Protein: WYL domain-containing protein
Amino acid sequence: MLLMVLKAGEEFRIPNMAADYNLLSGKLLNVLPDEERKKASQAISHINFDILRIIPKGYADDVLNPILEALWKSCDLQLSYYHPERNTTESRRFSPMELQFGDGGWYINGYCHLREEKRTFRLDRIVSITCVAEQLSNALSAKYHSVSQRSMSNEESN
Structure:
């Protein structure tokens, strides 16, 4: 069962974690007797998860840590985001609200200070990202929470 969970985790393609999944799966298999190891490997090879619609080419190094830090400390992110339709990269200050997995890729939702509205960014299009230590000003913080509340109300009514 644990091997199946690890296989699912690998399919979710958590940024830069594939080697960890493979290492842990290998360690779990190695504690089994030879015959059981063969059976477990064969059984796992027959389990598939059809969750990938977007196949990210890769993620910027250490993309998750600043996001998790920002969610933990309630601080902003400074990110450079690649726009494939324009073939440009743009720098933005961003207040994250939610990290989610959907359609085969990882996304972060929150308030974009450049556009002054809620935005969603694909993690595989983030070129660089850092957590900004200083907190939002009271006025910006109130505006951010107001947009967040309206956005959540709109989603609930749909």
The longest strand covers residues 88-102. Strands lie at 76-83, 88-102, 105-112, 117-122, 126-132.
